[in-house]
Amino acid sequence: GAVVSQHPSWVICKSGTSVKIECRSLDFQATTMFWYRQFPKQSLMLMATSNEGSKATYEQGVEKDKFLINHASLTLSTLTVTSAHPEDSSFYICSAREQWKADTQYFGPGTRLTVL
Amino acid sequence: LAKTTQPISMDSYEGQEVNITCSHNNIATNDYITWYQQFPSQGPRFIIQGYKTKVTNEVASLFIPADRKSSTLSLPRVSLSDTAVYYCLVGDPLNTDKLIFGTGTRLQVFP
């Protein structure tokens, strides 16, 4: 149980285009989902907290207009990287916390974004 | 949120027991300690979680002393496939929404 999926697993796009990444909790409902970014050889950096039915909370230094987050249902959160640039190339990982069981976060497999 | 400190890297050989210690001097009363494993280009995988004393599951043991200012993840008889980065995190599961990752420990297992 407690499986989190991400789609796509990898994406290559041209500079200036927008890319949407989906995060789904497959077998549980998640009121809260989190988005992380990880550069090579570095740790995960929290970007934002996504709450179902409300606006996301962004960490300091993360541009909310560039990284649009939508958490429209208890099983789906999306991250849209708008007007992507090469410096946005990274590994994006989501995690989800089960609705009535807040003690553990489960992570998705990650999405590799490459901006040319 | 309590800050954690771990060794940057560790080396071991197949079949040995590996103990990774994490320091969390400012851990709060309601904080739990959670360990994750991450392979390259994959999301972190939950290993074990505990509050005090000792917790054991099918893959690892977690030792937490009485003062809870540190914890030790114990991996029995490691294999090459245990080569990964291991992260120690602390937080209150009911009141802390987010997990802040530290540097993690890069474990390299040699044949």
Structure description:
Chain A is mainly β. Chain A contains no helices and eleven strands. In chain A, the strands form two sheets. In chain A, strands 2, 4, 5, 6, 9, 10 and 11 form a seven-stranded mixed β-sheet that branches. Chain A has a four-stranded antiparallel β-sheet with strand order 1-3-8-7, with no helix packed on it. Chain A is globular, with a radius of gyration of 13 Å. With 111 residues, chain B is mainly beta. Helix content of chain B is 0%, strand content 47%. Chain B contains no helices and nine strands. In chain B, the strands form two sheets. In chain B, strands 1-9-8-3-4 form a five-stranded mixed β-sheet, with no helix packed on it. Chain B has a four-stranded antiparallel β-sheet with strand order 2-7-6-5, with no helix packed on it. In chain B, strand 3 and strand 4 (45-50) form a beta hairpin. The chains are: A mainly beta (116), B mainly beta (111). Chain A binds chain B through residues 4, 6, 32, 34, 36, 43-46, 49, 91, 93, 95, 97, 102-110, 112, and chain B through 32, 34, 36, 41-46, 49, 87, 93-94, 97-104.
